[in-house]
Amino acid sequence: MALPTKEQVIEALKPVQDPEIRIGIIDLGLVYDVLLEEDTSKVTVKMTLTTPACPYGEMLVSMTHRAVEELDGVEDVEVVLVWSPPWDPNEMCSDQAKDVLGIW
After folding, report:
1. H-helix or E-strand containing 17?
2. CA–CA gap between residue 52 and residue 40 (Å, rounded)
3. Residues near 95 by Cβ (< 8 Å), separated by ≥ 6?
4. pLDDT (tens digit, 0 to 9) for every residue of the chain, 104 residues total?
5. Residue 57 near residue 49, CB atoms below 8 Å
6. How far is 48 from 52, CA to CA, in rounded Å?
7. Domains of the chain with CATH codes
8. Can you say how many angstroms the Cα of residue 68 is from the centroid of all Cα atoms in its chain?
9. Whole-model pTM?
10. In DSSP terms, which residues pair with 46 in a beta bridge?
11. Parallel, antiparallel, or unpaired for β 42-47 and 76-81?
């Protein structure tokens, strides 16, 4: 079975919300990249957190992992936390998330 597309992985991640602010990780701009390895059926998600000291970091990583592993064709999932570039809500959030956060 073929791996899902990058767009399908991103779509699967849309319901994953930061538990503290109740906004999806895609709208927050926390997902930096999705890498697909067809030969090993592996999906790697590169993401960050709103802050390195985020109390929900482990939970967000787990929820991200679970959302991707449930997709057909995925045999292995890796979620990699990255800190560069640092998360900036002014630059990385969707317009909808900026509205909720009061950023304008």
Report:
1. strand 17-18
2. 31
3. none
4. 789 999 999 999 999 999 989 999 999 999 999 999 999 999 999 999 999 999 999 999 999 999 999 999 999 999 999 999 999 999 999 999 999 999 87
5. yes
6. 8
7. 6-85 (3.30.300.130)
8. 10
9. 0.94
10. 33, 80
11. parallel
Structure tokens at 75: 């045999």
User: Tokens standing for 2?
Assistant: 């073929």
CB 50 within 8 A of CB 18: yes
Q: Which residue has tokens 């930061």?
A: 18
- The upper half-sphere exposure of residue 27, i.e. CA atoms within 13 Å in the direction of its Cβ, equals 16
DSSP summary character for residue 5 = P
Taking Cα atoms as reference points, which of 39, 43, 48, 49 lies closest to residue 72?
43
